[in-house]
Structure formats: structure tokens, C-alpha cells
Amino acid sequence: MTSTHGTTKTAGPAVGPTPPEQTTATGQDGNGPQIQAVRRRIRELLPPDAVITDHARLRTYECDGLAHYRVTPAVVVLADSVDHVATVVRICAAQRVPFVARGSGTGLSGGALPRADGVLIVTSRMRAIREVLPQDQRAVVEPGVINLDVTKAAAPHGYYYAPDPSSQQICSIGGNVAENSGGAHCLKYGFTANHVTGVEFVAPDGSVVELGGLAPDAPGYDLLGTVVGSEGTLGIATAVTVRLTRKPEGVVTVLAGFPSTDDAGAATSAIIGAGVVPAAIEMMDALAIEAAEAAVHCNYPDGAGAVLVIELDGAAVEVQREFDEVERHCREHGAFEFRVARDDVERALIWKGRKSAFAAVGRISPDYIVQDGVIPRTSLPQVLRAIAELSSSSGVRVANVFHAGDGNLHPLVLFDESKPGQGEAAEEVSGKILDLCIDAGGSITGEHGVGIDKSAYMPRMFSDDDLDTMQMVRCAFDPDNIANPGKIFPTPRLCGEVPGRRKGEHPLAVAEVAEIF
Amino acid sequence: MAVEALIRAGPALTAACDDVSEATGADAVDGVQPGYVGRPGSTAETASLLRAAAEHGLAVVARGAGTKLTWGTPPERVDLVLDLTRMDAVVDHAAGDLVAVAQAGCPIATLQESLASAGQRLAMDETRPGTTLGGGIATNSSGPRRMLNGTFRDLMIGTTVVRADGVIAKSGGRVVKNVAGYDLGKLMTGSFGTLGVVTEAVFRLHPLPAASNVLLAGARDAATLAEMVRAMVHSDVVPTAVEVDWSPAGGGIGVLLEGSAEGVAARTATAGDLLGRAGAAETHVADLPPPSWGRYPEGVLLKVTCALSAVQTVLTEASRLGVTVCGSAGAGVLYGGLPAQRPPDDVRAAVTALRAVCVGTGGSLVVLDAPAAIKSTVDIWGPVSALELMRSVKQQFDPQRRLSPGRFVGGI
Question: Which end of chain B is more exposed for a tag (fewer CB within 10 A), N or C?
């Protein structure tokens, strides 16, 4: 299997021998009385072509971009509208049946992994770009709209949508909102949270609310900022108002080859230390370069121990000055090749190797784990050395591709599932890389999300009190724990009494009862 | 709270923190008299005080420099003022990582001074002299630079908060890119102290620019001023800020350009041309903004937001209603001012009319500050979307309604 790969035995609610899809985190009983009632009611209220209950078709949706975990949902709804979404959520709420939202299904943390005892609400049919408002620097789009299509719609007006995850040709805005997606250019421009000013939102009780809008700073709590990045655990966005960014006057992209990752890392620090904030600084090490060459023949410099892809944008006059700084620092730190793309064709060639890096690794290894961790940028040299030591002591190869500017590492841990013991060894290395990130004061995820893949690691980064406090927000939105339960948090919080809300048996208890039967 | 109960709470507070005193008239919060002032020196001491307050059912209002303590609705009751000014340290500045950690009581100006020695800054403005980080976060206050760099919600990457029950909770971290867990910092930003007490925060920093220029130009009418704003907002000169100043007597635009010396010079020339074509009779260039730059108007203070394309409509309507306006037109966030002596009914009529225009263009109008007679007459917050969810959040964080009760939207 050359698709992205999870950590079979170390993920889910607890680090242990059981894969998450065999725990209560993804539900057990796809045929209990509650889900049967939900299925019946959905069939009554939604058009037949919007509802999937046929087992073979359901299996199409059994995983997201993290193909290693698979759970067949009890029902799939292909929603056409906010009414569809709200109707289905209300039906689920009445029976306390879990629902999971899914956009394009490109997520890499199993955030859209279905529940066996729940409904998967797919938003990919909701593809209308409702409004492009260049005078307001906004666009209003439905959640199934593809990220890159927002930029295409804004381009004739001289604008674009800044967050650009590598999957931007297929990932949806709804998924971006759920994951607070980043991308190569968030070093300068920030993440989805900084570029969404409003959502139309279906809360877990099925009510539809507006959070934010065209203008910033809506009165009241910043529920918008809370919802973005909550991985579908607080509800479902059914329309998204995004900020459009002025297309920069000047863009220069540079490819620099270095003898080693240490040299490339030192150049990165020097550039940022000089007060330059590039739009992107990406690094690939020798193994990642080898994979990219094998896959897309990107013609990166021969013999490079590391390459940097650096992009500068902004007012043309500033870009030129920053370019001079960048060239100087790269050469001073050992760059033996320094290529400059001055037009879109040359630029695309430089980015091709970087953007294809994950898939390219499939050329040099039958299986691999894509890791996503963050460290303070100044820790880069020692963490890379520690990863190299882990690799040589374990015999597990690790290719490094990362956003060097903000310390977001994407180590690719290579293995061959058909060789006994390799999968386990790779998982161990992958987990230890996260420990290195935490020890360096970083994070277990910079952009792929916690999902089901890393919920077991949350207690390594946050105390029980921290997690409990986060889950108070969860309880405020979703006291019955039906919105994408089992994701982010290793254990659900009992919400206690919520005035005006119906009380019921906790879903965890329901799940455990189901397990007993 | 009954005097006896308040007296009973005294020893518990003193045991929790070594700097607790009886409140004086000067400690009143928007006219409401507290019983005690506690000055914790650490997050742990803040937690002890809040635990003691919880045990005795005390209502608590957190205070920094006190420059915005009269914002919002007056609290229903205050027993304890939590004065955070002793917690004024810049805890850490990791210059190589462009990250700083500071305590909530640290004045923004103090933090900037400390960061400047390494050629860096928190890309936020001081909107009232002496404003602390905690006060800025609690009120979500922002100034001109928000147009390019955002606000606290965008620049705060880690938050330590003490809950109403005294539990200490962290979210985020010390790295800019981080999507692990909910972002409690955004929830705390602008919550007016009703959900918890932020004691420490981590910020993403920016390099100090090598050079800056401010272009100033007068406008003969609101239409011309709005045209100048449009010319800047949709240009390639990448302004850090586009500010306006408009009253029935006239006004103008201020454009801040930051970058390298030669870059700023070239962009200033381009911006000047664009402003001229948009109708500016004459432009002046200064290397520093005027002292009034980014300061909120005195008197009745309104926060007025709208879609960018509606700036002209808002300026015209404000002018008709006798409201002076300044602020970040380039971000759609303006501040309105009215003389404090205006009769309350007059203010109410102006607020209602101007609010209708703002709401109609995707924005809002909030009366941030006003004399008591006016606050009791006007609708301070206006329509609030998703109020039930907000109440639900409050119920989770502060079920006994002891943190700044009544100061926020919908009586929260």
C-alpha cells in the first residue's frame, strides 16, 4: 500500500495493542435500534439520491486520506444544502446518534473516519461559490468548494485565497475550516483561522446559526475562532465567508542546494534573523530529494544534502531587496547552487518536487507514515540530528520534508509491510519523533490535526485540566457528544446538567452497553 | 453580597495571597463598589485567590491598568477586584523563534520596549496609554496595524487561563503552527473577563521594519475619503494601516507604509500618486504617525464595523448624526465618538440609526463606553448572533456567574 499510513497500534484513544477502529472511539453497533430509527427517518425526509445505505457503496466512504483506518458508516448522506445538513443533524440529535462530517476526504489524521454506529454527512455536493465580493475582499462559498477554486474565482479581480494546503486541488473549504488548514505560505499569511471571517453553522442540536460575517469582530464570544480547527467536533459549517488577499505585485521563487540540512537550517535562521519574512521556506533532505527525482524528475541540484525552496512576495521593490538578502545568506551558509524562477512556468517546476514529495516517497518505499510535528525553528538542527540517530539505530529510513520557516516537520517514515516487524518498527520511530517535538517545546500536529490518529498523544502535550477545560467548550456545543465523537480527545468528558438541554444516557455508556451485548 | 459574608471571606483571601486589601472608592468598577482588591504575583496565586473566591461565592472582576474598566455593561456586583499589575514580566523572548511569553499585567508598551532591543515587536498598537496585554486581550482592542497583522486573536499562540473554580488551564503552545486541541485563546479574546482570567500568553512576533512613512491627506467629502481608502486597499503598495478621521467638519486619511528604506520610499511615491488620482488635493509625508494615531475617541465610544465597501455609507451616516469617526477603514473597523454631554435620547437615536446601517452591511455597532445615564438608555451590544451558544459556553465555564457578571452580551 503506498497511500498514507497511520500508526496502527499506537493511535486511537490509548496507546496500546488495539487499532482504533476496534475500540469504542468509532462505534460498534451499526444496526442498533437508534441508528435504525435514524436511517428510517432520513429516508423519509431526504431525496433517495442523497442517502446511501447499500453496504458496497458505504464502503467507498470507510476512510479519509489516512487510509489505514477503516470503518464502514451506518448511513451516508450526500447533503445538497444547509437544510439537508440541519435535518440530518436534528434526526441524529433526537436519537443521540453520532454524526461525522466529511468534505473531500483528504484529511491525514482520520478526522473524517466514520462511526460504525453513526451517519457520515458528506458536503462535497455543496459546491456553490455563492458570492465573490472583491470590493469587500471576501467570498462566500459552500463547504464542498475546492480550495483552489476559490482562488480561481477571485483571480480575475486581482485576488486569491491565501491558505494553500498541498492538497489544494482536491481538498474542500469545509475540511479546511474543520482542520484549520495551513500550507506552505502560512509562515507569512497565517492559517485558515486567519482567513475565515464567518460561517453559517449547524450546531449539534440541528440549529443553524451565523458566526461572524463580512466584517470582523462580531459582538460576543469569538465562537468562530473556536469552531475553526475543532475538527468537526462542535458542528458543521454549511457556508464559509473567506477573506480574499490581494495578489502580490512581485513573486520570486528560489531553489537553493546545500551540502547538508544543518547548512540549510542555518541559512533559514539567518534569513529570518535578518528581518525577512518570506512567503514560504520549505526544506527537503537527500532522501526526500531522491524520491522526488524518481517520481517527477524535478531536476533538483545533484548531490545536495538538502534543498530550500524559498518564495518571496509583496511589493516588487521590497521583494527585490529581500531577494538580495536571501541570496547572500544562502551563499554564506554554503549554498552551492542557487536557481531563481522569474515566471510561473519556472516557479511551477521548482514547486513540483516539493508538492509531490509525499506521494513520491511511494517510489522508494512500499509503505510509509506521514508524520506532522512542530518544533521551535531554532531547535531544527538538534531535532534533525536526533531523528537521524533514531533512524540509524532502528534501521528505519526517514525522509524529511518540512516547512522550515515555521518548524513544521513532515518526516516520512519508510517501511515494507510485507517484511515482518517493519511496520511496528516504523510506528515506534514515528511515535518517538512526536516525543522529540514535545520535548523541544513544540506540538504533535501543525496542520494535519489530531483526529483519531493522535488523540492518544494529547495527554503528552496537555494536562488533564487543560483537556478538561477544552472539553467544557465541547460540552457547551455538544452535551450529548454526538458530533464526531472519539476524535481529538482520548476520553470524553461527562457534561453534567445543561439547562434547557435534554439529558440522556451518555453515548459512551450506550457504546459500552452495546459492547456487552 | 451581605457585609457579614464579605467579612467572612477576608481571611480566606488573605491566606490565598499576601497582597489583599480592602477596596477604596477608586477601585469601583464602572460605578460598582468591590469589597477587596487582591494583587496576585503569579498564576498559582491567582488560582488560589479564585479558589477562595469560589468557596465564598465572591463575584470577581479582573483588572489590568484599568484603562477600559468602564467598557461594556456595568457588572451586577463585584466583591473582589483581581489586580494583575504585579504580574508584569516579560517571561521569555525567544528572538530566533520570533516568540515572546509575557504575563497579563505587562503593559504593551513595556513588552514592545523589551522586544525592540532585539529588533522585534508584537504587531499591535497601544490604543490607550498604559494598556496591559491582559486588558487588551479581554476587550479585543486593536489599532491601525490590525489591517496587515491582525489582532490578539491572530497573534496570540498560547494562553494560560485560570478558571472560575481556580483550575489552571493552558491551550496552544510556543510554536506558531499548532492545531492540537481547541484554541481557548480565541474564546478568551474579547470575552470581557466573563470566562476566566488570562494570566500569561505567548505571542508570535514580527521583525521591526527598517523604515516607515505615514502619508496624510485631507478629504473634502466622505465620498472622496472613501475613494482614497479604496485606492489604498486595492493597491499593490501593501499598507500596514489605512486610517481615517472624519467629522462633520471634515477629515482625511492616514496610510502607514513599513519596510526597507528604499522600498518604503518607492511605495510612498506610488501611494501618493494613487491618493492624488482618488481626489486628494495634497499629501504630506511624515516618518512617524501623529500622536493621536490609533487612540480611541473620548466621551461616548462606539465600535463600528462594516463590510469594506460600506465605509462611505457609514462615514456619511455618521456625519449626518453628528458622530465623529476614526479608525481602521482598511479593515472595516472604525470607532465613533459623541460628546458625553449629549442627551441620552439623542445618543440612543444616533446609535439606532448608525447601527442599522452597520448591521445592514454585515457589521455591527457596540457602545464600548458611555456615562451611566446613556448606558442605561441605549442597547449597548445590539443584535448578537448565536447568543444561546454563548450562554451555554458561559454556563460551562462559570455556572455560578461570578466572573464579571452582567458585563457582557445578553447579560452574560
Answer: N
